[in-house]
Design goal:
Elements (H helix, E strand, L loop, with lengths): L6 E3 L4 E3 L2 E3 L2 E5 L9 H9 L5 E5 L2 H4 L14 H10 L3 E5 L30 H18 L10 E5 L13 H10 L6 E7 L3 H4 L5 E6 L4 H10 L6 E6 L10 E3 L2 H13 L3 E8 L10 E2 L5 E2 L18 H13 L19 E2 L2 E4 H4 L4 E6 L19 E9 L3 E4 L4 E2 L1 E6 L2 E6 L5 E4 L6 E9 L15 E2 L4 E2 L2 E2 L3 E6 L3 H6 L6 E2 L8 E9 L6 E4 L5 E6 L2 E7 L6 E4 L7 E9 L6 E5 L7 E3 L2
Parallel strand pairs: 4-5, 4-12, 5-6, 6-7, 7-8, 8-9, 9-10, 10-12, 11-37
Antiparallel strand pairs: 1-2, 2-3, 13-14, 15-36, 16-29, 16-30, 17-28, 18-24, 18-28, 19-23, 19-26, 20-25, 21-22, 21-24, 26-27, 30-35, 31-34, 31-36, 32-33, 32-35
Helix pairs in contact: 8-9
Length: about 600
C-alpha cells in the first residue's frame, strides 16, 4: 500500500498523512538487546504510551571488514523494523554513518584508520568512498520500509551531532544526498546539542535539539534558527552512561517526568534517549577523551525507564501515568516480567596461561618497529579492531623503560613472563630489573575503547602507536600477537593444553568453569568478587569487561545466552582471581550519584 504524504512539518506542528501528529519517541538499540528479547522490550515501550521507536545503525558492527557485511541474527535491522511495524510503532532511523552512541569510535569501523591520511567525517575521498560502499549495501534494505511505501519509517536522521565537529562545510550535504540518491524520501532531521545547532544543520532537513534540562534559551536558539517549524527534542537524556573508576550516574525520576510533562504541555515532540539502554556486550563500548581518558563500562542501563534487564522502574510507572493522561487511546497491558535466577556459583577447575594460548591467536608477526592494532596484517588485512595485542622483544640489560604517550590504553609489562609493572596513559616510566643474558620483554596492550566523540577521531589508533624506550633507546624487532578474543578464538581454545587449576596459577590467564541451568534458563547477573580485571565469556560469547574499581559490579547475562544443562564459563583475568564466578538475581551497577 502506498501513502501519499508522510511526516511533514508545518509552522507549529508535525502532521502524518495530513493529520496532526506528535512524536513521543523512545530509543532502543537492536544491537544492545538480545534478539530473543526485541519483542518484549518493544511491547513494554508501546505499553508505556510511546508511539515511535528510534534506533541508531552501527556501521562498525554491520561492516567489520572492508568487504564483509552482516545484517543477520543480532544485526537483522529489517526484522527489527518489521517487528516495530507489527506492534504499531513508527520508526525514526538514525543511520549515521557516525552515530556516537557511546560506541568505540562512535560506530565508525576501525579499519578506516589504516589509511594514513584518513579524515573521518569529512568529504575526504577515502571516507566518502567507504560511506558510499556501506550505503550501497545498507540503504536498499530500508527503502521499502519507508512510510510512503507502506512501512513504519517516518523520518531519517542525517549523521549525528555534526555541529560540534564541523570540520567540512560540504559533509552534511554529501550525507544528505547519499541518503536521498539511494531512495530515502521521508522527512530528514539533523540533531545537535544546543550550542552546536547553528553549524550542524543542512538545507532540507529539520533541526532538532538534544538536552537534559529544559532551558528556555536552548529552545529559543532552536526556534530563532528555524522559526516556522515545530520543536523536536531528538534526545531527551533520561539518564547517563558510566565510566570506569567513577560513580553510577542517575537522574531522579521526578526530574525526568516534570521535564517531559513540560515539553508535552508546550506542544513539543520528544524522543527519550534511552527508553531502554540495554548492554554494550563484548568490546563495543567507547571512551571519553576530555578532560582525561576514561573508558565506558559495558552496562548501558542509562538509568532509563526500562532497566538494563528490561525491568520496570519508577520512571517507567510515572511516565506511563503521564502519557496516559496525554493520550486518548487506551494502552496495552504491561507485559509480564521475566524470572531472574541466582544460580550456583561456577567453580573454575581448569587454567590456561596466556602464554599457552598464544598458538591459537592470529600471528605472530615480525616487525622492526611497533605496529598499531589497526595496521596489523590480520583479519584479511583489515587490522585488529578490539581486545588485546601482545608485543614481545629481546633485551640484554635492565634500566628505565619509558612509554611516552605510545601505550593505548593500558599495558601489563613482563620480563621472561614475570610481571614487572603497568603502563597506563599517565604512568610513563618503569624500572626493568637487571639480569643476565638475553631476556624477553613483553607488553600486553589493551584497547580499552576508542573515543566515541570529539574532534580527535582520526587519532584513535590502539596498541603501541610509537616507540617504547629502554634507557632512551627505542626497542626494536618485535614479535606481535593479535588477541582480539573473537568467538572463533575462544572456541579454538577447546584444543588448548588446559591444566587442572594449580595452587598458584599464573596471570594473565584463562579460567574455565561450568554453570548448570535446568529447564528454561533465566536471566542472571555475573558477579566476580575477588577478581581484578578481565573479560567474561559465556558459551563463547563475550559478555564484556569487568574491573574491580567499578562502579559496575555485575554483568547482565540474558537467559537466551544460556543452554538448558551445561554452560561453559571462561574468564580471562589479568592480575588476580578468586576461582569462583557468582550468579545473582539482582544487578549491582555501583554507588549512585545524581548527574550534575
Amino acid at each position: 500500500m502506498s501513502r501519499k504524504v508522510g511526516l511533514s512539518a508545518n509552522s507549529s506542528q508535525f502532521t502524518l498523512e495530513g493529520e496532526p501528529f506528535r512524536i513521543v519517541g523512545g530509543s532502543i538499540h537492536y544491537f544492545r538487546v538480545p534478539r530473543a528479547y526485541w519483542r518484549d522490550r518493544l511491547m513494554k515501550m508501546k505499553a508505556c504510551g510511546i508511539n515511535t521507536l528510534t534506533t541508531y545503525v552501527p556501521w562498525s558492527l554491520h561492516q567489520p571488514e572492508r568487504g564483509v557485511f552482516n545484517f543477520h541474527t543480532q544485526l537483522d535491522l529489517v526484522a527489527y523494523i518489521n517487528l516495530a511495524a507489527e506492534l504499531g510503532l513508527w520508526v525514526i532511523l538514525r543511520p549515521g554513518p557516525y552515530i556516537s552512541s557511546e560506541l568505540d569510535l562512535g560506530g565508525l569501523p576501525s579499519w578506516l584508520l589504516r589509511d594514513g591520511g584518513m579524515r573521518l567525517r569529512t568529504t575526504y575521498p577515502g571516507f566518502t568512498l567507504a560511506v558510499n560502499t556501506f550505503f550501497d549495501k545498507f540503504i536498499p534494505k530500508v527503502v521499502p520500509l519507508q512510510f510512503k511505501k507502506g512501512g513504519p519509517i517516518i523520518a531519517v536522521q542525517v549523521d549525528n551531532e555534526y555541529g560540534s565537529f564541523a570540520k567540512d562545510e560540504g559533509y552534511m550535504l554529501f550525507i544528505k544526498e547519499a541518503l536521498q540518491s539511494r531512495g530515502i524520501s521521508e522527512l530528514l532531521f539533523t540533531s545537535d546539542n544546543h550550542n552546536a545547532l547553528k553549524s550542524g544543520g543542512v538545507d532540507g532537513a529539520i533541526r532538532s535539539v538534544k538536552l537534559q534540562k529544559l532551558n528556555q534559551r536552548d529552545i529559543q536558539d532552536l526556534n530563532s534558527l528555524q522559526p516556522n517549524s515545530p520543536t523536536m527534542v531528538m534526545d531527551y537524556w533520561t539518564g547517563w552512561y558510566d565510566v570506569w573508576g567513577d560513580l553510577h550516574h542517575v537522574l531522579p525520576p521526578e526530574d525526568m517526568v516534570s521535564t517531559v510533562r513540560e515539553m508535552l504541555r508546550r506542544g513539543m515532540s520528544v524522543n527519550l534517549y534511552m527508553f531502554h539502554g540495554g548492554s554494550s556486550f563484548g568490546f563495543m563500548s567507547g571512551a571519553l577523551a576530555d578532560p582525561s581518558y576514561k573508558a565506558l563500562v559495558p552496562s548501558y542501563d542509562y538509568d532509563a525507564p526500562l532497566s538494563e534487564a528490561g525491568e520496570y522502574t519508577l520512571k517507567y510507572h510515572l511516565l506511563r501515568d503521564l502519557l496516559c493522561r496525554f493520550n486518548s487511546e487506551s494502552f496495552l497491558d504491561m507485559p509480564a516480567l521475566h524470572y531472574r535466577e541466582a544460580y550456583e556459583p561456577a567453580i573454575m577447575y581448569q587454567h590456561l596461561s596466556l602464554w599457552d594460548a598464544l598458538s591459537f591467536t592470529e600471528g605472530p608477526f615480525k616487525s622492526s618497529k611497533p605496529v598499531s592494532m589497526e595496521n596489523l596484517p590480520v583479519n584479511n588485512k583489515n587490522g585488529q579492531s578490539y581486545g588485546y595485542t601482545l608485543y614481545e622483544t629481546t633485551i640484554t640489560s635492565g634500566g628505565l623503560l619509558k612509554s611516552g604517550d605510545n601505550v593505548r590504553d593500558r599495558a601489563l609489562v613482563f620480563v621472561d613472563r614475570s610481571y614487572i609493572g603497568l603502563f597506563k596513559r599517565q604512568s610513563l616510566e618503569l624500572a626493568v630489573p637487571d639480569g643476565k643474558g638475553q631476556r624477553t620483554l613483553s607488553l600486553l596492550v589493551e584497547n580499552c575503547g576508542r573515543v566515541h566523540k570529539g574532534r580527535d577521531l582520526d587519532k584513535q589508533h590502539k596498541g603501541l602507536v610509537g616507540d617504547i624506550l629502554l634507557n632512551n633507546i627505542p626497542l626494536q624487532d618485535f614479535t606481535i600477537y593479535s588477541l582480539d578474543m573473537k568467538p572463533s578464538f575462544i572456541d579454538s581454545l577447546y584444543q588448548a593444553p588446559w591444566k587442572t587449576l594449580p595452587e598458584a596459577p599464573s596471570f594473565p590467564g584463562f579460567f574455565l568453569g561450568r554453570l548448570f541451568a535446568y529447564g528454561y534458563p533465566s536471566d542472571t547477573f555475573v558477579k566476580l568478587p575477588g577478581w581484578g580485571k578481565g573479560v567474561v565469556f559465556i558459551n563463547g560469547l563475550n559478555l564484556g569487561r569487568f574491573w574491580s574499581i567499578g562502579p559496575q559490579q555485575t554483568l547482565y547475562l540474558p537467559g537466551p545466552f544460556l543452554n538448558s544443562g551445561i554452560n561453559q564459563v571462561i574468564v580471562f583475568e589479568e592480575e588476580e582471581g578468586d576461582y569462583k564466578v557468582h550468579f545473582e538475581d539482582t544487578p549491582d551497577l555501583g554507588m549512585a550519584a545524581d548527574i550534575q
